[in-house]
Model the fold of this input.
Amino acid sequence: MKVQTKNKIKQERFQAFNIVVFGGDGDLSIRKILPAIFHRDLDGQLDIPYNIIAITRKEPDLHSFHNKLIPFLEESDHLKYSKEEIEKFLKKLIIIKAENPTVNDYSDLRQFLEKHPERQNIFYYSTPSSAFGPITQTLKACGLVKQSSKVVLEKPLGHSLESSIAINAEITQAFKEHQIYRIDHYLGKETVQNLMVLRFANNLFERAWNAENIESVQITVAESLGVEKRASYYDQSGALLDMVQNHLLQLLCLVAMEPPVALEADEVRNEKLKVLKALRPFNKKTVLKDSVKGQYTIGKSKSNKVNSYLEDIEKYESKTETFVAIKTYVDNWRWKGVPFLLRTGKRMVKRYSEIVINFKEVKHNIFPSKEKLNNNKLIIRLQPEERIELIQMTKIPGPGGYRYKPIALKLDYNDSFKERFPEAYERLIVDVIRGNQTLFMRQDELQAAWKWIESITTNWTAVNMPNVLYEAGSWGPGDNILEDGESWITKSWRE
Ligand code: BG6
Done:
């Protein structure tokens, strides 16, 4: 258990707020959004007047809502929380029924918000994106969108370039770009943020961060779980849209972008946009060679049978991919010819996410044994534990000539920092409250990401790309995109 810091974090002025969560009784709200606000409050960061308004489509039943929420509040690694803290927090939570997005159904919400005209209103859309337009129009018709209002959009923001543009057009009828927060929770993860510090606060790495020194970059986000209770959403989306279009591309951007001139939101986002625009689009030939999609089939876990994807979604047939691996290139000066290998999937061996910067081998091997010298690797582990490792060749002690092996220099976050690490949602929600858009996607970034993703989806359709079946609990068919001499480092380094 982490030690709770005594100092209250209150570096910035926060304006009093109401956060209105549409889809307030949904899974994301209960498991992530509401507990995130609770934790920030416990840390003393929300020491200002605020309320949370959960919008539900059914008649509110406060008691059962609390019963659903409390276990997630209690699942806390804070030392200092008690029943009283939970009760205090629950008093700030108001549940309002609004079955449909109509002026009539929003009248209770309007009445509540009008009681606090001095507060900023944050509208958090945790609903399917088809509801974004109607909600926005109704908020506008009710006169609830003010200059100080903000809107938070949960993914997926559409299912194609065209639909994401259409969603944006609906939102911008009421909100300006500086009021829109498109959330990607990967950007709120501690290690992902540390990537910026690692790259731009250390001279050592930045100097070697280019095609001259780096052989390949690999990003793996492996999940051990299947589709759980989200079968109908997932079956329409698949791994490419669920994970690559947002999370993996954002990680790629942070690895590949040029140093921004400052940390301001638009400076960072301008650099990320350049990377997205430089991604090499796919064609029929390259999509066959440099991408693979897969679907999990029956597997085993500790001698129990694990369902196939079709069993999980209760269908006889589905073309949806639960795994994808892609080799791509960032066509600019810095990254010329360096492959970026991306891989993600459900029901893989374990929950395991990391970025590997695989450096080139030494220019000339002076050691007589001619035993292969492993390339240096910088491994940034995002989960389950947060750690950075630098793999370097080391002499094995003893007489009789040089023998060497790769050893990891480790920075383990847990050993170095005793504080509790806030969850990604905690940081992002606080950034919304204080109006910092750095960790949120701008519309032009989103469009550039969709454009590249569509070069994959359209060519998959054109070549009738099949799913390669992989056993649940395996590494998936990622090897299909490798060329001679290439390997997935995660696998080769650990096993
Ligand atoms: C979500 C996806 O955005 O990210 C899920 O919709 C996925 O399918 C999840 O499981 C992974 O997030 P994390 O933080 O657990 O890696």
